[in-house]
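User: Thanks for the earlier help. One more: Late competence development ComFB family protein. Can you show the sequence and predicted structure together?

Assistant: Of course, both are below.
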Amino acid sequence: MKFSRELSILNVMEPIVSDLFDNNYVKTGALKCDCEKCQIDIILLTLNHLPPHYTSSQTGEAFIKASYLNSQLQSDVLREITEAVKIIENNPNH
């Protein structure tokens, strides 16, 4: 199957995880190592432990992001980020 350039596929979890990670760890200076490699590894490890939510439209993206305004879902994502931070800090790949 060939996709047109006008349509794009987005895992909406990527910006959600990235934003929560940035706001709760990067901006607060809570990381032992804040190099780009460690930050990317933390985000990737987190995304690998969360179910993906794909969309190809802005409406779908807005719907999925709105569902993550739920405090329990945010808590679940933050828990996964925290676990990834622990793993990467104990086993940096740089």
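User: Great, one quick takeaway?

Assistant: The two ends are 37 Å apart (CA to CA).
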